[in-house]
Specification:
This protein folds into four domains: 4-119, no CATH class; 126-315, Rossmann fold (3-Layer(aba) Sandwich); 513-663, no CATH class; 689-789, Alpha Horseshoe (Serine Threonine Protein Phosphatase 5, Tetratricopeptide repeat), CATH 1.25.40. Helices cover 56% and strands 6% of the residues. The protein contains 37 helices and eleven strands. The strands form four sheets. Strands 1-4-3-2 form a four-stranded parallel sheet, sandwiched between helices. A three-stranded antiparallel sheet has the order 5-7-6. Helix 16 crosses helix 17. The relative contact order is 0.05.
Length: 789
Amino acid sequence: MVDPLGLIGVVGVAIQIIQLAAQLGLDWKHAPADASSFMLELQSLKTVLSETNMNGRHSALLSQLDPLHDTDTKAMVSACKCELESLLEDLKKRAQGHSLGWERLKGAFQAEARRVLDWLTPADYGPHHSDIFRRRQPGTGLWLLESDKFQTWVDGEKQMLFCPGVPGAGKTMLASIVIDHLQSRFHDRPGAGIAFVYCNFRRQDEQTAEHLIASLLKQLACRLSSLPGAVKALYDRHAARGLRPSLGALAEALRCVAAMYEEKVFIVVDALDECKATDGTRENLMRMLLSLQSADSLKVNLLTTSRSISDVERQHASVPRLEVRATKGDIQQYVQGHMSELKPFVARRQDLQKEIVTGISDAVDGIFLLAILFFQSFRDKTSPKAIKNSLEKLRKQSITSDDNQKLAVLRAAYDEAMARINGQMPGDRDLALKVLSWITCARWPLRALELRHALAVELGEEELDEENLPETEDMVSVCAGLVTIDHESGIIRLVHYTTQEYFNQTRSQWFPDAESDITKTCATYLSFTTFGSGPCRTDNGFHDRVRFNPLYAYATHNWAYHAHNAQEDCKEVIDFLRMDAQVQAAYQALLCYGLSSRVPGNEGIKWSAAILAPPEAFAGLHLAAYSGLDKALGKLLLFESMDPDRSDGLGRTPLSYAAWQGHTADRKGRTPLMHAAKKGHVTTVKALLTISRVDIDAKELRGRTALSRAAARGHTGVVELLLDTGQVDVNAAGTFKYDDHEEALTPYMVAVKNGHTATAEVLFKHGGRAIEGGTGEMVDCEIPSYSQE
């Protein structure tokens, strides 16, 4: 029988190896597969031998061996010990000389995994989740966690739970409570995966189905011990070629990664109703998730929240549902927990506190947002009577179960909040309106620092005065509870999406000039002298420019968007477009950030500042055309120095920029092709004809086409190019003005009338005819011998 001391010796050496391997990092989750496999086997060997020795089972275990093999067994144990001792000595030597190298190698593994996962999507929903959950009043939401339907969803396999609710019921907060509950319960269970997304109406352009599936995939991949092969394969197939994986490829990778979890996978999707529906995003997302959840080989539990809208209800028709509504207990806990925010006299009146708690909880009928807004309305009350009057007002507008009435009361609460804002001192009122207008009209969510810089801009000044920066706390406090800060991300936002809907409907009432004001601010910011050095020549220089000028990224990408929406022509825009250095700097930012990359030769590519500088001679005309600002183009052309056919260093004219950027028509329906045809720019017309999205036979508001405009000017070469496409109506009639009257003329007729004989002959050969007066029929007519002058 084997001596127990032999077993103890093997166990002792195994323990030393395990400890030393941990120092070297061989137990690290991204360690090479063979090292990880060996460590698992060694752990198992140590465990078995330790239990055998400690429990006195060695004799029972080894007694089953044939006595003839006892010597062989002893030899095997001895040999095992010798091999392990040899390995231990080797590891000790490596630990002395190579631990630092292994740390570097381990760091390289981690960096590679981060690079792949960040390529998959840079989005991180963790900070947003933390921001939401941080605002939870302790003790709220327990009704959901303790419900039978939720317990079934958590404990079962392949479960679904749909949690609909009216706007403002607290769906997003409850989603965060669910996510936190899952993270707490399964944090030490690697066999369970957890992933979640918060859909947001302000991020609809970003939150495509691809983005949302990639985000779920990234979260599940991060929780595993090493980078999944399916994710690495996606990266290898696409990244080097600058491509993005398709929705199908992402969904397949998500399926593969979900299958790696032995226990189950939980997926939580909040606010499906805020996911874009018009482009199929919502439909595609749910189709992919339902396919994942129903797959036989997977154990995926899916929970979704949403308003009760028809298409979402249809997708969840056969799914268990648990309606979300704020309970009276939750409302009362929230109000009591924030009572210290009211005036000091409230703290001294227990009876008044009880009235406030009861009055608000009775008035809101399950809408948590209303409780927040109602409570905010008490913060400026300076006497018990004022509070009691407000409570009486709440009782009179008590809500029934009718959803439309709930929305009406919610709107009334917003009206009340705006009345309080307008009743503030002028400085506070003006600051609040500026904050609300920027947040409402901004094209993407703004960080508080970006908004501070926006509000500090002074029209007509050449630089930002930091003494003019408002404080973040003041920007929030003057807005009567309608604005909040996400402290993890730094985003300043409206308190709820219904707040955005309210301001969308009442924008003309509260801030009618917002688009013009934002346009002026952005244009002034871009005109600052600090950008007068033009484009940056290094990546570090560009990153410093963006870091030290927080509004720069937003202004460069969105000034033109706001200019399109402005109700007036802004002098600041023209001033900016006449500054070549600042214009080139702004264009570089457009390209480097990659938010708008539809430029000739650079489609779909994100460039670094060290590589990309705007072409020489790129000017305001090009940027205005690129941005589709027809009015600005017209005003720029009034200046003598502005050449409408000015080419940049790559030979591109303003017209070619407009065409490449897809600005297909101005307000009169005239397309870049029409402009090029009218001017007789054969080269530009050729280029435009190669673009599939160009409508060759488009008509402007007066019915004229590119063909008729070229014919009217006698540009025979352009006429021939258009006719050769076979895609134009040679006899499309448009209205042309002559002196004091207008005539409906075909291209052939206008060429004849204007004396362009050669052009008329080409048109006639291709079937061009005149219109019979009064009948509208096409007839032949003689081509007069007009001069070409």
